[in-house]
Amino acid sequence: MDPIFSIQDRTAAFDYVLSVTRPCRRIVSLVQVGSGAQGYHDEWSDLDFVVALDSDDAMAEVMAYMHHKISGEYRLLFFNQDESRHLQCYLLSNLLEIDIGYGAYEHAAAWKPAFRVLYDRSGVVEEKMVRSRAWMDDRIYGEKQRKDIDAACRSVWIRLMHAAVAIHRGQYLRAVGEMESVRRQYINLLGDRYRLESSLNREIDRLPETEKAAIRSTFVMGESPSELWRGLENLTALVYKELESCAVSVPQELLHTYYAGLR
C-alpha cells in the first residue's frame, strides 16, 4: 500500500465496504454521503457512508461486524466509535479516512443534500431521504440559528469589551483570543443564514466573496494597537449587523463609547 492513498486506493476501499455490507443480513441499505455522492472534491476526499439497519437492535452487532471486516482487511492508524452518534471513524495506514454512520432504515433521513443510495433491499430508503429534505434544513439550520442568535446576544458584547481592555493593557494574545471567540460566533451566524456548515469553517469557503472579505477584515496580522483596534471595530460592526433585529443587552453605540475611552 502506498504511503498516501491514491484515487485507485480510494476506489478499492469503496468497493470493499460495498462488498462486505451486502452479505450482512441485518444491513438493509448502504448510502454514500458527502462530496463523494455527487463527485469527489479532489483526490484527497475521504469516504463517508450511512448503513441502514433492519432495526436499532442490530446496532452493536453490525458495528462490530464492520469493524471486524475493515480492521481485518486494512492496517488502521486510528479507530474511534462514538456510541452516542452511532458513528465509526477509520483512518487507514495510507491516511484514507472512512466514516460510517448507522441507523434503522425506518428513520432514514438526509442530513445533507448530497447522498447516493448504493443499494436498498427495503425499497423505501431513498424515498424517505428525499422526502426528509423538505423539513430537515429547517430542523438543522433553523433551530441552530435560533440558538446561535440567542448565544450571540448574550455574550458577544462582553467578549468585545474584554478584547478592548486587553488592547488597552497591551495584552495582544488575550485580545486576539477574545476576538476569535466573537469571530467564531459571527461565522456561525453567517453559516446559519446561508445554510452552510460552519463547524471548523467546513463550508464557509462557499460564502459570497463579499462575506469572505468581511471575515478577512477582522483578522489581525500584527501586534500594533492600531491593527488590533481596526480588527475589533470591523468585527463589532459585522456581528452587530447580523444581530440588528435582535435585542442585544449592550447597544453598539455604547460599545464604541467604551472603546473611545480606552484608546
Write the layout of secondary structure elements.
Elements: H1 7-21, E1 27-33, E2 47-53, H2 59-73, E3 76-82, E4 87-92, E5 97-104, E6 115-120, H3 125-169, H4 172-194, H5 209-216, H6 225-242, H7 252-262
Parallel strand pairs: 2-5
Antiparallel strand pairs: 1-2, 1-6, 3-4, 4-5
Helix pairs in contact: 3-4, 3-6, 3-7, 4-6
Describe this structure in words.
It contains 7 helices and 6 strands; from the N terminus they run αββαββββααααα. The protein has helices at about 5-20, 60-75, 125-170, 170-195, 210-215, 225-240, 250-260; strands at about 25-35, 45-55, 75-80, 85-90, 95-105, 115-120. It has a 6-stranded mixed sheet, covered by helices on one side. Strand 4 (about 85-90) and strand 5 (about 95-105) form a beta hairpin. Helix 3 (about 125-170) packs antiparallel against helix 4. The longest helix is centred in the middle third of the chain and has 45 residues, at about 125-170.
Short summary of the structure?
The protein is of the alpha+beta class. 51% of the residues lie in helices and 16% in strands.
Number of strands: 6
H/I helix tally: 7
Question: What is the terminal separation in angstroms?
Answer: 59 Å
The CATH superfamily of the largest domain bears the name Nucleotidyltransferases  domain 2
| Oligomeric status | single chain
Q: In the CATH classification, which architecture of the largest domain applies?
A: Up-down Bundle
Low-pLDDT runs: none
SS-based structural class? alpha+beta
Major sheet details: 6 strands, mixed
> What is the approximate shape?
elongated
What is the residue-mean pLDDT, rounded to a whole number?
Answer: 92
CATH domain class name of the largest domain: Mainly Alpha
**CATH topology assignment of the largest domain:** Four Helix Bundle (Hemerythrin (Met), subunit A)
What's the number of domains?
2
Query: Which percent band covers the strand fraction?
Result: 15-25%
Radius of gyration: 23 Å
Task: Record the strand order, biggest sheet.
Answer: 3-4-5-2-1-6
What's the SSE pattern?
HEEHEEEEHHHHH
The helix fraction, in percent, is 40-55%
